Amino acid sequence: MSTPELSRSRAAVESSGAVLDVRESTGSTNADLLQAASGLPDGSVVATLDQTAGRGRLDRSWTAPTGQTLAASVLVRADLTDRDRGWLPLVAGAAMRDAVRAALEPAPDDRADGADASRASRPADTEARGTERVLVKWPNDVLVDGRKVCGILCQVAGDGAVVVGAGVNLTIPADALPTPNATSLVAAGATGDAAGLADAVLSVFVTGVREAVVALATGGADADAVRSHVRAVCGTIGARVRLELPDGGVVEADATGIDDDGRITIRDRDGVSRGVAVGDVTHLRYA
User: What DSSP letter does each residue of 140-182 carry, written as one string?
Assistant: First the structure.
């Protein structure tokens, strides 16, 4: 398999002075970027269509058939508060949601390669979630028609930078998907080969993450707009969910929102509301 050029992604990354390292094959783009982080500028990216040892949240394996999935990791260096650093997984999920939506529903002028495409793909906060095919399951899984197309994993490098990793199913046929709850861009209706889809998705994702991080660092109305967008595209809000908690507990509740600390807020059967910072979410139905 030849190394894809990813020309639009290269333009998006290198426009900020960062580095795009596209690899023919690697074990883990997150591991590669964590190892090299201290010598790279903010916004640098490692990407491949052949990741052989990727991991997801909760140390789960990520099945990535050669040439049919994108693995990409973005280096984030920013002067963020602890609270805003906690929002990075959420804004990364929202940025990838925008990228996937743009790939599935490209604008007439085919603007799938930068800030204009990212902004154009964002729904108004008042748009009904039920009409949206592409949503985020809190905190950052991207779903198309309720099935997972992308997972996000954030890890902290030794120098304090954050590596934001994403794995996207591109061209896996519907009959070859790893689970009944998975999908791919092609299975969901996208057209094109893996390299072209990877370029379209990665260029919008990188731009979206960069813009969101700048807005969080700026604070005020800019940061509020980023959080509002995350809430607007989160399909967990308004759903009946099952939460598997780190201590082994399981809770069924209605998800009511995302608080200012990035926690999912739930209301249990007794009507008690609280925020949950970490948990594995399953959507049961919409409330």
Answer: TEEEETTEEEEEEEEEE-TTS-EEEEEEEE-S--GGG-SSTTB
